[in-house]
UniProtKB/TrEMBL annotation:
Entry's Gene Ontology BP terms: fatty acid biosynthetic process
Ranges in a coiled coil: none
Keywords for this protein: Hydrolase, Lipid biosynthesis, Lipid metabolism
Organism the protein comes from: Niastella yeongjuensis
Entry protein name: ACP phosphodiesterase
MF (Gene Ontology): [acyl-carrier-protein] phosphodiesterase activity
InterPro entries recorded: ACP_PD
Pfam families: ACP_PD (PF04336)
Superkingdom, natural source: Bacteria
Amino acid sequence: MNYLAHAYLSFNQPAILAGNLFSDFVKGKQVNLYPEEVRKGILLHRAIDSFTDEHAATREAKNIFKPHYRLYSSAFIDVSYDHFLANDSQQFTDDSLSEFSQQVYLSLDKYLDVSPEPFKQLFPYMKRHNWLYNYRTRLGIERSFEGVVHRAAYLSDSQTAFKLFEENYQKLQQYYTDFFPSLHRFAFDTLQGM
C-alpha cells in the first residue's frame, strides 16, 4: 500500500502514523532507534506490505504492470490501491478525505524531529501538493506514477503505467474491493497484538 492506506491503517494514533509513514526510510535494525510507539508503526508498515504482496488479489493485479515494469509493478499497484481507497465511499467522502489529509499533515509535523532525513525532505512536497487527497483524482494518480518512475533507478516511462491503469480501471478496482477489507482486519489485529 502507499501513503494514504498506511496513514488510514494507523487508526488515528499519531506515533503509529509517523512510523507507518516513514517506515520505508528505516532499514533493518534501525527500527530499534525509535521510540516504542513509533517503532510499532514501522513494524505495522512492514506487516501491511508483506500482507499486501502475498494477497492473491495483489498477485493478480501485478500482472497488469509486470510485462512493462517487472519488479516495480508492486509500486504501481500500491498507488492504484490508494486511488480506490480515496474513492471508497465506505471509507471516505470528499470532505472527510480532505479533512483526514490535513490532520495527517498536522500530526506528522510534530514527528519531523524523529523522522529519517529522506522523509524530512519528501514531506514538504507531500504536504504542499496534498498527495493524500490527490490520490482521489486521475491526475493525482498520473503524477504519482511519474513520482514512482522519478525515484526508480531503472525506469523512464510513466505514461505506459497510466495507460495500463486507465485500460484496466474496473479490474484494478475489483482487486482492491476483494483485498482491502481483509487488509483492514489484518492491520487492526496486528496493531492490537503489538
